């Protein structure tokens, strides 16, 4: 069946954007800490394509493998919950090893999950993505630690994460019965992005 034009355009835009940007995290430029709030936290996941791609891909995978609408919630809820936990760890300045490599690995793994449409039980899917979400959260927490209003910023970040998951789910539901190759190409692009980041960190 044919893919709807809006869904096709969204997917192709995401694919085209992946190789153009890397880990552009707020705070990575060494700027002084300052007052932040909900809005800044909300924008935070959009400032690094590694975070954005992972969150959308989790939603996409969830929709592609779901047997019902309720099944789509396991992985996104698991990711968002563990992202919050990781962010709190980062805000507390707890040193966690291999944060950036694990973020890159998350892209590789989630991208391959999209490509293969590997179906896992809901709790297992939540646990798999949740492990990686901790490291995404820690990275955000490090970048926001020391800033006034970090608690509100974390709230905005979690909301943005949920919306990115929802966007991925919407795209997945739109495409799951229409085309096979486009989600696979998108998953492959995410996986290659992760592999490229891992190679840079090696």
Low-confidence stretches: 7-33
Number of extended strands: 0
| Helical run tally | 8
Order of helices and strands: HHHHHHHH
Query: Structurally, how many domains make up the residues?
Result: 1
β-sheet strand percentage: under 5%
Distance between the termini: 42 Å
Measured on Cα atoms, how large is the radius of gyration?
Answer: 16 Å
General form:
globular
By secondary-structure content and strand pairing, the structural class works out as: mainly alpha
Major pleated sheet: none
**Average pLDDT reading:** 85
Helix content: over 70%
Describe the structure.
Residues 1-24 form the signal peptide. Keywords: Membrane, Signal, Transmembrane, Transmembrane helix. The chain crosses the membrane at residues 48-66, 73-92, 98-116, 123-142, 154-175, 182-201. The protein is an all-alpha fold and 202 residues long. It has one domain. 70% of the residues lie in helices and 0% in strands. It has eight helices and no strands. The protein has helices at 5-17, 38-43, 49-65, 74-91, 99-116, 122-144, 150-175, 181-201. Helix 3 (49-65) crosses helix 7. It is globular, with a radius of gyration of 16 Å. The termini are far apart. The model is unreliable at 7-33 (pLDDT under 50).
